[in-house]
User: Fold this.
Amino acid sequence: MGRCTPKEIGRGGRVRSRMGVRRAWVLVVVHLAITAHLTHWWLVGRTVSPLEPSEAMAFTKQGIVNAGLIFFAASSLATLLWGRFFCGWGCHMVALQDLARWLLLRVGIRPRPLRSRLLAWVPLIAFVYMFLLPLWMRPETPSTRLALLTNAFWRTFPPWWAALITFFVCGFLVIYLLGSKGFCTYACPYGGLYSALDRLAPTRIRVDDRCESCGLCTAVCSSNVDVKREVGRHGMVVDSGCMKCLDCVTVCPKNALRLGFGAPAGLRSKVRPGKHPTWREELLGAGVFAATFFSLRGLYGIVPFLLALGLAGCMVGVVARVRKGARGWRTATALAALFVAHSAFVQIEGHRSARAFERLAVPRSTFFSSQRLPLTQDQNAATATVLSAGGRAAAWSLLPDPRRELELGWAHLLRGDLAAAETYLRRAAGHARHPATLLLELGNLRRLRGDREGALESYRQALASQPAHPFAADMLAELLVESADQALAEGKPDRAQAHFTEALSLQPGNLEVRAALVELHLARSDREGALDLLRAGVALAPTDPAPLRVLAFTHLTLGELDQAAEACARAAELPDPDGETARLALRIEAARGK
Assistant:
């Protein structure tokens, strides 16, 4: 049997690999590239859509081909050919996990891997849930469209603080509780696909006759692979957890290991080192994982999918340590279990409220229109459920949840309690990440209550939060015109002009608003201001005769007959199916005495 040489043994008896430093530098470069991508978006405002596998969900749900989908497809193809090289050399989560492992080893803590056969299926199940289930559930196949660039780079990601928590839990805490590459082994949905593809990859760690079974390869592996036994049994590493870090190759004192092509692993069983839990313990761990995941997924609208997976895995790790009699973990387990139970109660009540809220879609859609429908008996019962279940969920929540506040606001609104409805809708808009729609609903409510200024403020906030919202600009412009007409009726032309000007900036092609603003300028004997407005309207729609007719009519009103005739002649060169240009031309010619 070979012996470890001093070069392969570091402080504390740890085996060290020369390849680890090279891989660390590659992962540093990966993070610098991510930083450059974010910086480009921050400076320019538009950049390539995130190179993140989760972005591929936009294709399964909406048929959108983005950079994330192309990246995911390319990395999957690379895995099919060369194994999990991308995981080991290009994944930022692997970099965080390796950093956590290195820090723990530096302080004398060696992460103990959790050995679970049931939880090893979680990544593949998560992949099916994220990417394949939406294909089956969508009502119709959407048309495919390309969207490689984006203005809203962070829209599909959680808030920055939730992202930091995700990185800490999935990149650090999981390592301490579940062992090296714990997130990759028991949570990563992309790893679920990569693991399956790795089984078909012809590129594997292989061995020749020089191997003396010294065990250095197993000792240096940071992916919990029993390299020594696998190459001894199969002549290669068949474990799909192998991320081709090449540490085992570089520490072999006989150079017996290599990365080579040949037969793929297929269905050959991997060697599982260490003691495995009993099936009773496996079922307990699976139950703890499921209970924690479903209790925390989407909690308060802020716990993302990956963070919920990481927290569920951590909970299993905590329970496993308590069952082994480790001291100091009982209090932590009790507090964690209490938090999960509390979260489960909030989630259950929230789901009850959400299901009842769905039954209120019809009265909600007609509430602010002239066709408002009265509540049916079932809808009255639904509002009662929202007020009771949603009220309990909101009262017991540790953090504000805009979903519950929205539901409670509408329940009060449908019951006729406008003051309470405005309170809840205002809270929901203040706590939501994307509040544009909520602000529009708040504006509608304020408009219903006669608070036109409050409604204008809400509409402006909605437009500022989401300039591309399909209704925000039109709704604000409509209320501005209404406010301008009211100001004119009250004898406040300055206020009316300000409202008309703002409305025109939102709808430059609105001839009625432009004409009203022209009348205000003419009433103040501001001939040039009125004509400038009209010329700008003509420039905005050079193929539309209507702005030219308005310009010609204004010249006619001012007695500028030659200018009116010139503008009308330009309008006559454009299509005139209704004959309006011809009638205007007759009026101008009559005024000129012809």
